[in-house]
Specification:
It is a single chain. The chain is built from ten helices and twelve strands. The protein has 251 residues and is an alpha+beta fold. The protein has two domains: 118 residues, Phosphorylase Kinase, domain 1, CATH 3.30.200; 125 residues, Transferase(Phosphotransferase), domain 1. Strands 1, 2, 5, 6, 7, 8 and 9 form a seven-stranded antiparallel β-sheet that branches. The protein has a three-stranded antiparallel β-sheet with strand order 10-11-12. A two-stranded antiparallel ribbon has the order 3-4.
Length: 251
């Protein structure tokens, strides 16, 4: 159960320090509180798998922390830039998320400032945890999720947006309602060659630990055939190469 702290009650509450973390600056926190009001945020919801001090939140990374928020009846994910982040603004990340959204990938961008990024809240389970809960009888849903995930990765490749963290695919994909969603675009870039499809395939089917989990749920492709299909796709990035890769994977 989430603890709800209204925007009107946030100043002086235990959650106020989340607006300026890890080094608290009251003036900075107050400025960000004003920005929250401008973005239409009504409340902060405490809860999630990660801890900041004694407070439970949704996520914690090198650039920001993520908490749930409310905008009227809508629940959202709010990313707050860390005071020790290696960048001065979240606007570049918002722009790249918007590019992902243009091809129907990633959480929907709802608003941003230099220090705050407001997104659709995707509620589900991490792909790694979802895989742990499957049995061999779940081969159909598994192939559906993997095929959909690779479709998303393909669309990112087509617009030249490299996610940058899909090598850790277990924690950057959430399965919500049987649909995989790619999250966390803070390392994304259009300045390097997009390699989302090949990275996802390598992380799932060529990583020893993950492929062992998949191997108890579905028939795995022959390694040399998969490597040949990956080389073809990587060289041409073509529709034909992608279709052949899906065929080899049995998706």
């Amino acid at each position: 159960m989430s603890e709800v702290i209204s925007i009107g009650s946030l100043h002086g509450s235990k959650a106020f320090r989340l607006l300026s973390w890890p080094s608290f600056d009251e003036a900075m926190a107050e400025e960000r509180l004003r920005d929250l009001r401008l973005l239409g945020v009504d409340a902060i919801l405490l809860g999630g798998p990660h801890l900041v001090g004694s407070l439970r939140i949704l996520g914690k990374g090198h650039v920001g922390i993520v908490v749930a928020a409310k905008m009227g009846e809508v629940r959202a994910a709010l990313k707050v830039r860390r005071t020790d982040a290696d960048r001065a603004t979240l606007r570049d990340e918002a722009e790249l998320l918007g590019l992902a959204n243009s091809v129907r990938v990633g959480p929907e961008l709802l608003g941003c400032t230099d220090d705050l990024l407001l997104m659709e809240l995707i509620e589900g389970v991490y792909l790694g945890d979802w895989l742990e809960g499957l049995t061999p009888s779940d081969g159909g849903p598994l192939r559906g999720v993997l095929g959909s995930l690779l479709g998303d990765a393909r669309r990112l490749d087509e617009v030249g947006l490299d996610h940058g963290e899909l090598v850790r695919v277990r924690r950057h994909i959430i399965v919500a309602g049987g649909v995989p969603r790619i999250i966390d675009f803070e390392s994304a870039s259009t300045r390097r060659r997009a390699a989302n499809v090949t990275t996802v395939v390598q992380s799932l089917f060529l990583n020893q630990a993950t492929s062992a989990k998949l191997g108890r749920l579905m028939r795995l492709p022959e390694r040399e055939g998969l490597l040949a299909a990956l080389r073809w796709y990587k060289a041409e990035m073509s529709d034909g190469g992608f279709v052949e890769l899906l065929r080899v994977l049995g998706l």
